């Protein structure tokens, strides 16, 4: 059976490409990859782009939420790097829409919730508008999940 961390990331890689206007979002995500890219390496048809990466994780032993036994708790940091482009150099609306879409997609996914995870948006770091026509940022989420210690996380 895949680890909890793997299941979470596998699901994130299904959720993010489904961010489309047809699915009720404000943005049509063009490209999702786990391979980091510089904005100028992306083709125009690949923007808006999202790059999810599972980062650091804290682990400790806890009583399972059901109270029936002890197990492990993992608190995983997820970073989603994003890039948008606008020919009129007005990226603010596109940036805000995609930020909201990513948060909405992760916090409201029933399959991810069924994995027994708790997701909390923690911070956003932007590029401060330093590159004309582009906007890039990192969104961070804290994902708490529980697993049986005999299986590993």
Structure description:
The protein is α+β, with helices and mostly antiparallel strands and 153 residues long. The protein has one domain (4-147): STM4215-like (2-Layer Sandwich), CATH 3.30.2000. Helices cover 22% and strands 37% of the residues. The protein is built from three helices and five strands, in the order αβββααββ. The protein has helices at residues 4-15, 92-107, 110-114; strands at residues 31-32, 49-63, 70-85, 118-126, 134-147. Strands 1-2-3-5-4 form a five-stranded mixed beta sheet. A hairpin with a 7-residue loop joins β4 (118-126) and β5. It is elongated, with a radius of gyration of 17 Å.
Main features:
STM4215-like, alpha+beta, 153 residues, 5-stranded mixed sheet, elongated, 3 helices
Total number of helices: 3
Summarize the helix and strand pattern as letters.
Answer: HEEEHHEE
SS-based structural class? alpha+beta
Total domains, how many? 1
The overall strand count is 5
Tell the overall outline.
elongated
Strand content: 35-45%
Strand order of the largest sheet: 1-2-3-5-4
The pLDDT mean sits at 88
Rg (C-alpha, Å): 17 Å
**CATH-level-2 architecture:** 2-Layer Sandwich
In CATH, the homologous superfamily goes by the name Phage tail protein-like
Low-confidence stretches: none
Distance between the termini: 11 Å
């Amino acid at each position: 059976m895949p680890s909890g961390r793997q299941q979470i990331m596998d699901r994130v890689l299904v959720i993010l490409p489904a961010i489309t206007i047809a699915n009720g979002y404000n943005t049509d995500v063009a490209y999702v990859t786990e391979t980091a890219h510089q904005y100028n390496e992306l083709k125009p048809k690949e923007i808006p782009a999202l790059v999810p990466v599972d980062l650091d994780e804290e682990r400790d032993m806890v009583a399972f939420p059901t109270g029936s036994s002890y197990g492990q708790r993992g608190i995983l940091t997820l970073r989603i790097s994003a890039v948008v482009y606008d020919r009129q150099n007005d990226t603010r609306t596109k940036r805000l829409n995609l930020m909201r879409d990513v948060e909405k997609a992760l916090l409201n996914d029933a399959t991810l919730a069924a994995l027994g995870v708790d997701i909390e948006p923690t911070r956003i770091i932007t590029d401060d508008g330093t590159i004309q026509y582009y906007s890039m940022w990192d969104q961070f989420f804290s994902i708490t999940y529980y697993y049986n210690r005999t299986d590993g996380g």
